[in-house]
Each structure stands twice: as structure tokens, then as C-alpha cells.
## 1
Amino acid sequence: MTLIRFYIRLTVVLLFVTILPNYSFAWHDETHLAIAKAAKYYKWYNAAGADMIKIKAGFIERYNHYSNNPPGTVITPEMVLKQADLYNKTDDRGHLYGAIIASLRDYKKDRQREKYGEYHLAFCAHYVGDLSQPLHNTFYNEYNRTYHKRTDSIVNDRVLESLEKIKIYSITINSEKDLADEIARIANFSIQLGNKVENEARLITEEEAYIQIGHSASLFKAIMQYVDAISLP
Ligand SMILES: [Zn+2]
């Protein structure tokens, strides 16, 4: 390798590790599983799979897990639906909201063809979990880099034994538009909380984390009812 090519490669690598968003994780595994379990998803144990696949699928998968929103962003249902076309594509801004819509479309499509669509629903369960992690919804800046991992793990060690702390509320979804409305609503809660903790230069509290993951679990429960998926008794 010539010296110039070596330096070009080095620059590219440094760019990826220092500047571009690099969400190695999301809420950690147990938190994702707890969200799916609280929603009574019968394949709750698949809800961390979308993070597993990142180490093999790389750029196909990584942009489905966050939306890099500058301060002041207000997410609209139209923005959510527009992101769906970017699913599984390279896009540094991330397209988490569209990934929820698109993975559900894939699930419905496979079921109509009488194919096994369950893995698409498991991807959807994971993305709905990421939706409530505030730092997956805010700009990837110094604060985000510093606090990201600690936020991911804030309730993780105890969450599977504390499902009663995840409060489910009723959401009704009758159309994809309703789903986009709900995704935008929760995204805006996450952005507001992300901006708040950043302004206060602090980590989210456990109480705030449980409220957030309660939004995810409530939404995923409504999604399962919308697509008539099997749920735990
Ligand atoms: Zn994720």
C-alpha cells in the first residue's frame, strides 16, 4: 500500500470513529427484551436481534436505529413516512422512524404471502424500543457521545425483574397514518427529554427511563393489536 493510500484509509477510519454517529448499542439487550415482554410480545426474546445483526450487516442496518435531529426539530407524521423509503439504506442522519414503518410493511407483506414474517416484527419491536432512547433522537454531539452508553444501560441490570415499573397505556392504531402519528408523538417526547438532560448536563434518571420505555412498550402493544400478531396471555 502506498503511503498516500494508507493516509486516505486512516482518515476514513478516523472519520467514522470520531465524527459520524456510531451507536454501537441501543438500550442494552435486557432493556429491549423487557420492553417487548411488557408489551406481551410472544417472541420477546428476539427483540435484541437487530443490534446483533449490526456486526455483520454493517451499513445496511446501522442507520435504522437512530435519527440525528438537530436542536429545535419537531417530528411530524409526514417526516416519519418519508423516512420509510430509506430503510436499510446508507444515510448518516439515520431513519429510525421510517424503519418502524418499513419493517411493519415487510411483516404484513410476508404474512399476506403466507411466509414467515416474524423476524420483521422482531426488527420492528427493536426499533420501537430505540424510539424512546432520548439520545437516539438527538444530535450526535459531545454530550451524546459522553452520555450515550451510560444512558443505554441506566435500568438494564434490573429491568427484566422490574416489568411492573413499565407502565402500559392505551393506544389505538387503525392505519399507517395513525402509526406515523404515534411515532412522531413519542419521538418528540424523546427529543424534548434529550434536549432537557443535555441542557442540564446530566444523565437521565431511572424514573425518566421507565417513563420512556413505557411509551415504547405501549406503542408496540398497539402495533401488535393493529397487525393482529400473537401475544402472550
Ligand atoms: Zn438499536
Note: The radius of gyration is 18 Å.
## 2
Amino acid sequence: MITGYMEEMDHTLNSTFAGQEIAQRWSDLFIFERTFQEIKPDLIIELGTYLGALTHFFSLHGKVWTIDNMKRDIGNYTNVKYNIGDVFSTKIENTIAGIILDHSKVVFFCDNGNKIEEFKLYAKYLKKGDVIFVHDWNNEIMLKDIEYTIEVENLTPYLHELSIKYNSLLRGWIK
Ligand SMILES: C[S@@+](CC[C@H](N)C(=O)[O-])C[C@H]1O[C@@H](n2cnc3c(N)ncnc32)[C@H](O)[C@@H]1O
């Protein structure tokens, strides 16, 4: 079991999408694929662009708003608004709150340096039917870190059984 886990961890480190290094497992992409089919979001928000491989994957499914505090050459993809800034700044918080309101169905992904604080900060802006995911579940973020927010914001587990079955590092909730 531990070997399998380690292999999966190695696989994470070596994952690529369309030839670009991506900080996701293949099972994470599967969970997103299923989510986009079910939710049909008109906006996908990604906190933490890194090299843009997941941004690319997201852009094949619709409009993407992504942000990182380090500018990198991520390539040019249609549907993508690439922003540089700090997700904990008031300016970015207000911008994100506004674009969530301006769209009818949002899938929101916390994949930044501090997933716990991102989740706590942004979960309150979600509308009914929006979905929020965090990455590195049980690694950088655990249930005890966010259970208060989950309860207060009335969030329901989303695709948890599938995420566990396929060893995904994602956990999602729907508002
Ligand atoms: C794990 S990587 C993102 C991986 C990417 N989503 C992928 O799947 O390939 C996290 C990124 O968050 C960025 N970051 C860290 N703290 C940040 C902050 N406060 N605001 C914006 N970006 C931040 C880092 O520069 C880094 O590129």
C-alpha cells in the first residue's frame, strides 16, 4: 500500500500535460473532467498558475481566470485571462468576488501556497451551485483545518467517493 502510494507520489512529480510539467495526478484531471461534464461552468478560477499546464487543460473546457504571484511564460491559450498578483491582497479578493458574481456557474480551484487560508477566504463568495476544490488533501490541508468554513458556508462534499477511489489529491464541495 505504501509502495503504491509512493509510486503515485512519484507519478505526481513526473506528470505532464501536452508535454508541460503539471502539478497534478492523472486522477485529478479525471475528477476535473467529470466535474466539467456535470457542472458545465461558465468560469473556472485557478489560484496558482505555475507553468500553466493545468490552465491549458482547463481552457479546453471553457473560460479560465488564473493567477500567480510569479510571472512565467505559460504560452498562449484562448479562453485564458492570466493575472499576476497576490491572492491575499484586498484588490485581488475584490476582483475575484466580482467575477464570481458575474458568472452563473463557477468551478474554483485552490492550488496556491496556502490552501487553508485560500479556502477560508474565498468559500464565502461562492453562489449556490458553484464548486470549490482544494489540492494536496491530507497533505497540506485537512478536514480539521476547514470544517468550520464547510459548515458555516453550507458546503456539501462533491465527488469525494470517486476522489478516494482513484487516489486523487483533490477534494471538492458544492455550495
Ligand atoms: C502548486 S503551484 C500551482 C500548480 C498548477 N496549478 C498546476 O497544476 O500545474 C502553486 C503556485 O502558487 C503560486 N503562489 C504562491 N503563493 C501565492 C500567492 N499568495 N498569490 C498568488 N500565487 C501564489 C506559486 O508561485 C506557484 O506557482
Note: The beta strands are 16-17, 20-21, 43-47, 64-68, 80-84, 106-110, 131-134, 156-158, 171-174.
## 3
Amino acid sequence: MTNGVHRFSAVQRELRDRFAGIVETGDDWIEVGRIGEGESESWRVRNPADDMVGVAKPGPPRADQDGHFRAAHEKIAFDLAHLIGLPVSPVVLWPKDIGTVYKVGRSISCWAFPQGDKWNVAEGKGLISAIQKQSVAAEVAAMRVFHAWIGDGDRKPDHVFVDTDSPPDRLNIAFFDHGNSMSAAWKGPNANCGVCGHYLAGVPEDKDTMLAVAEHIAACSDSNVQALVDRIPARYLPTGPRGHIIQNLLARKGNLRGLVGI
Ligand SMILES: Nc1ncnc2c1ncn2[C@@H]1O[C@H](COP(=O)(O)OP(=O)(O)O)[C@@H](O)[C@H]1O
Ligand SMILES: [Mg+2]
């Protein structure tokens, strides 16, 4: 699976690889306005250096969220997906106002495709054909295993971004919103948490890919996985939840067939 299960264009692959190479952005992103949906009350941001758009999460600071490490989860999820070769929208950490306004920092998740809609919106507009749904069976199967690995039960059609410039017989998709994964679900070692089922109607279940991806994740070296968690600076992720994340990722990675039920 060296090329991964995705159909990102060369431009998108470049962005993905570049974001995987950095932990924190040093750019002066501009806050453009509220996104206007989602529990994190995220803000739309723009990088004036290259006009890249993205979503900064979380939005307005809330004291009850200081122990919710959304930014760290978003970044680790993207980095792990990159390690495996799976289509997650590129994420960097954004240090602006960390420790003051934003106690545990923010992440920026960028558009995987220059043009697109969330799956539910594209579906509502009738933009996704039956053939296109069939064409994403492998990606959807792979991501189901991945989400079981990272303890993410918060999966739904409006966390899938659809490239509205996809060819008629193939759909390009990317997954986002991993703020509620990992330490949000794992409060200790060997944590129990539910896994999500199949939630995209019309997409066939591809068991062969699920099995292949479970094996592929199991074969990733523990040190590579741990290194991606450990490179997150402490101000975004304190020692306790960091340890739980590493322990659960390593414990679950060899047990994905059982967790997913395949
Ligand atoms: N990478 C992305 N690509 C496209 N849209 C995004 C992306 N990240 C966030 N969004 C938009 O921002 C909204 C809120 O983001 P989300 O990650 O779902 O945060 P929340 O934690 O608030 O649910 C989404 O519903 C979507 O419209
Ligand atoms: Mg969301």
C-alpha cells in the first residue's frame, strides 16, 4: 500500500506531504470569519502567503474544553493517516495565542480539494452518482479500520469532503474532523470505546480492503507510531493523555480485525 488508498492530485499530495513534514505552522494565518457550524465553533482562516484556506479549531475559548485536546488529535490523526497512506485533509498545529487565549492550542485543517462540498451536501444536490459511490469503496473501507484504530466514533457523511470536480466514474474524497478521537475516548490504558459502522449509503462494503488495511496498520513499527505522537509539543498535549494515546494506539493496532469485527 505504498501509494495509499486515495486519489489526491499531485498538487494535493504536495500539500499533504508538506504538512506531514511540519508540526506547527509559522505562517501568519488570518482569521476570516466563523464557519457557523460544528461543536468546536471553528473559524475559517486564510494563509496570505499562498491563499490556502482552512479551518482553525477550536473556535472561541471555553474553560470546559481545556482538557479536550482537539488540536493534538487532529494533527496526530492526519499524521497517522499520512503514515498509512489514507485520505485525511492536511492538518498543522497553530501556536497563535496558545497557553493564553487557547489553553491547549489550535489546529488548522485545510481543504483537501480546491473545490468541494461535504458528502451530505453533495448528495443532497444529487452530485454523487451510483458509480461514483461504488468507486470509493476501498477508501471508505480503509478509513473505517483507521477510525477504529484511533477510537473515533464521530463519523458521519458531513465529515467527508467530496471533490466536486471528480471524473464521472470516480469520486475523490477526503476525511476530516478527528477532534473527538483518541484521548477524548481513551481515559486510561486499554480503554474500551465503540467503533463506527458503515455510514455511507450506496457505498459497497469492501472487506478485502478492510483486512488489508488492518494488516498494514498492524505491520507499522511501534516506534514510527510513537514518534508521531511524541513530536506534538507538550503545550498541546500533556503527559497523561499523551501516554494513553500511545498505549492505546499500540495496543489496538494488532487487534483491528477484532475491533472492527472482520
Ligand atoms: N478540511 C476541511 N475541509 C472542508 N471543510 C472543513 C474542513 N475542516 C472543517 N471543515 C468545515 O468546518 C466545519 C466544522 O469542522 P469540524 O472539523 O467538523 O469541527 P467540529 O469539531 O466543530 O465538528 C465542518 O462541518 C466543515 O464544514
Ligand atoms: Mg464536525
Note: The chain has a mean pLDDT of 94.
